[in-house]
């Protein structure tokens, strides 16, 4: 039986989040500049996005650019932003063909104007697509998002819009940039690194974590199938005992 055939389509994770890591190391292994790895990584984004949509996954969030990534060499950052602009334009037909809605989370104000313009146009063009939602985390960090939420909550408490006694998990969630996105059931990180890197810290409290040594440019549909099969073989207890779930 194929790997895809081993997947129970009735038990798919509704939301998969991926930390796409390893583009630079992949390029170095090929004797190329880091930017070459980012270009190859875009091909993987297209493959994984289409595969997830075809499987029936409802939300796919990709950690495309963190706030910490602004500290990389200026030439690499500029190349990444240029690649993002070109990729969004080029992949519009793919999004429309697969009925995929594009969304984004992060500090949009920090993006170059051309990049933000293309992103907003793509979001508008795909807003009525009803299949999978592809969420790009751009200039994003979980700590930044939580800090922004705290500021908004503090402002609303001060204005009397809410009372401090009303602050609980549900209310905080409503103030995050991910408020209209379900929490991910499965978080995947490629390249063998065993850390979360400031990604969806609030939202992954009960996510299943899957780490693979495969570098992102080599992460194929088959690798995604492996991650989903591994997820489906786990028992998700959410603090309960196994006996309580039966």
Question: Would you give an account of this structure?
Answer:
The chain is α/β, with parallel strands linked by helices and 246 residues long. The chain has one domain (11-141, 184-234): Undecaprenyl pyrophosphate synthetase, CATH 3.40.1180.10. 43% of the residues lie in helices and 14% in strands. The chain is built from 9 helices and 6 strands. The chain has helices at 23-29, 34-55, 74-90, 92-97, 113-126, 142-159, 169-175, 221-232, 242-245; strands at residues 15-19, 59-66, 101-105, 133-140, 186-189, 208-211. It is globular, with a radius of gyration of 19 Å. The two termini are 29 Å apart. The model has no long low-confidence stretch (mean pLDDT 93).
């Amino acid at each position: 039986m194929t790997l895809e055939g081993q997947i129970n389509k009735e038990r798919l994770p509704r939301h998969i989040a991926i930390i796409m890591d390893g583009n630079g190391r992949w390029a170095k292994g090929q004797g190329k500049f880091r930017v070459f790895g980012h270009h190859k990584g875009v091909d993987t984004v297209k493959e994984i996005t289409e595969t997830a949509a075809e499987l029936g996954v409802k939300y796919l969030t990709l950690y495309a650019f963190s706030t910490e990534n602004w500290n990389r060499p200026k030439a690499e950052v500029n190349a990444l932003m240029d690649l993002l602009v070109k990729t969004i334009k080029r992949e519009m037909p793919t999004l429309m063909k697969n009925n995929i809605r594009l969304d984004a989370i992060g500090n949009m104000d920090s993006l170059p104007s051309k990049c933000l313009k293309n992103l907003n146009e793509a979001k508008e063009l795909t807003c009525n697509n009803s299949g999978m939602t592809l969420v790009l985390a751009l200039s994003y960090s979980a700590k930044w998002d939580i800090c922004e939420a705290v500021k908004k909550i503090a402002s609303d408490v001060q204005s009397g819009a809410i009372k401090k006694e009303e602050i609980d998990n549900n209310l905080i969630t409503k103030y995050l940039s991910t408020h209209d996105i379900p929490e991910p059931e499965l978080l995947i990180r490629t390249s063998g690194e065993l850390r979360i890197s400031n990604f969806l810290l609030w939202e992954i409290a009960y996510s299943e974590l899957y780490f693979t040594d495969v570098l992102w440019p080599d992460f194929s549909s088959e690798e995604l199938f492996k991650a989903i099969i591994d997820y489906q073989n786990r028992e998700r207890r959410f603090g309960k005992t196994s006996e309580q779930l039966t």
